[in-house]
Amino acid sequence: AQTVTQSQPEMSVQEAETVTLSCTYDTSESDYYLFWYKQPPSRQMILVIRQEAYKQQNATENRFSVNFQKAAKSFSLKISDSQLGDAAMYFCAIPLLIQGAQKLVFGQGTRLTINP
Amino acid sequence: NAGVTQTPKFQVLKTGQSMTLQCAQDMNHEYMSWYRQDPGMGLRLIHYSVGAGITDQGEVPNGYNVSRSTTEDFPLRLLSAAPSQTSVYFCASSNREGINEKLFFGSGTQLSVL
User: Which residues of A touch B50 (CB under 8 A)?
Assistant: First the structure.
């Protein structure tokens, strides 16, 4: 079965430091997009970053960057200079083939705590 | 800028009751979807639609019905609520098929089934 796995249910980091959240997946597709979404306590889901699988260059959005290893099927999110506002649940999401159609599947989530 | 609007925000049902969760978007998006969020399980896709008149099942469709009569609206119906349907429900839309595009989410509906 095709899956998306976030193996870290919880992570914590000191303010201003760097933290990396991991995500692995299993897909037979060759061309696809990968996403990281953030869910703060407000519950609103917010897109953090998107990566195109056919691009070798890792995506970057300000303090957020990804480490995409296509062969290893790994898609980690690095947050630099962590801020208190980064505290949230983080979900990776990847299209997987389910019942004959591609559907966007989310990982289990990682709860990130920022320590002042 | 309404975006994706979900109603109600909170709902308590008794086992066996039926109800409809409403979702509307004003961005003329073709793709709309419903997810449920449960602790430790992330978001799981219930049903989705790629346009008016077209719907399909997601990962966990049992116990839920949907229809898409207009581009704007995508209601989710619980025919006979069960305690296992206690969850937070999110509606999301995007301007194409949703697979490779940014999803715009509603603010969620917290549903409790007693």
Answer: none
Q: Does A33 touch chain B (CB under 8 A)?
A: yes
Report the pLDDT value the prediction gives residue A95, as an integer from 0 to 100: 86
- Which token pair is A15? 């303010």
C-alpha span between A32 and A53 (Å, rounded): 5
Name the more confident of A109 and B40: A109
Residues of B in contact with A98 (CB under 8 A): 58-59
A54-79 in b/e form (b: 16+ CB < 10 A) is eeeeebeeeebbbebeeeebebbbbb
Eight-class DSSP state of B84: G
Residue A62 CB partners (closer than 8 Å, separation 6+): none
Give yes or no for a contact between A96 and A102, defined as CB atoms under 8 angstroms apart: yes
Across the interface, which of A35, A43, A108 has its CB nearest the CB of B42?
A: A108
**pLDDT greater at residue B103 or residue B1:** B103
- Cα–Cα distance, A86 to A58 (Å, whole number): 21
Q: Which of A98, A52, A97, A96 is nearest to A75 (CA)?
A: A52
Report strand pairing: A101-106 vs B76-78: unpaired
Q: Is A18 helix (H, G, I), strand (E, B) or coil?
A: coil
Beta-strand ranges (E) seen in chain A are: 4-5, 10-14, 19-21, 24-25, 33-39, 46-52, 60-61, 64-69, 74-79, 88-98, 101-106, 110-115
pLDDT for residue B74: 98
